Amino acid sequence: MILINLLPHREAARKRRRESFFATLGASAVVGGIIAGLIYGWYVAQISSQQSRNARLQSEIQKLESQIKDIATLQAEIAALRARQQAVEDLQADRNMPVHLLNELVRQLPDGVYVTSIKQENQTILLVGMAQSNERVSELLRNLGSRSAWLTRPELVEITSASVNLGPRDTRRVSNFTMRFKLLKASEAQKGASSASGTAAPTSAASGTTRT
Prior knowledge:
Elements lengths: L8 H86 L2 H12 L4 E9 L2 E8 L2 H13 L4 E15 L5 E13 L2 H26 L1
Antiparallel strand pairs: 1-2, 2-4, 3-4
């Protein structure tokens, strides 16, 4: 006996395939959504962790900046204190400058040279005097320029000839002069003495080698 299936089996198969496709598509969408959610949650957690680290770093940076400002303020205060200390030390050292000036003039004045007036303006000294000859004035310039540790840079401003009456019948020719030089501060004089001793040591060593 021959059986004939009159049901629409092709449409049923297509319907089953369609339902299977949509079921697979829905499952894929669900799985994809779960995976996307997990990835999104992981990124959110990483971003949150990075933001917390950034906030902590920012807080530490602010603390360091505050400490740096404090250190800069302390350094400025230390520099100001050192400057004031140096100023006080300079004043204490420079208060003896008139004594050094007079001592050096007594030491460096040649015989036959007389001082009539001294005027000081800051470190510049204006000296007015009288000498028996121009050679005495030249000797004084050499002494002030090379033999004094406190007086330097002598400059002859003016020299004139004059006559001095020493008695009723005794008249002598003299040279009136005006010169300018610099009085060194204590710190400058010490530097000059140090450099001079430093250059003198190699010279003496060289001379000793020559003698042997």
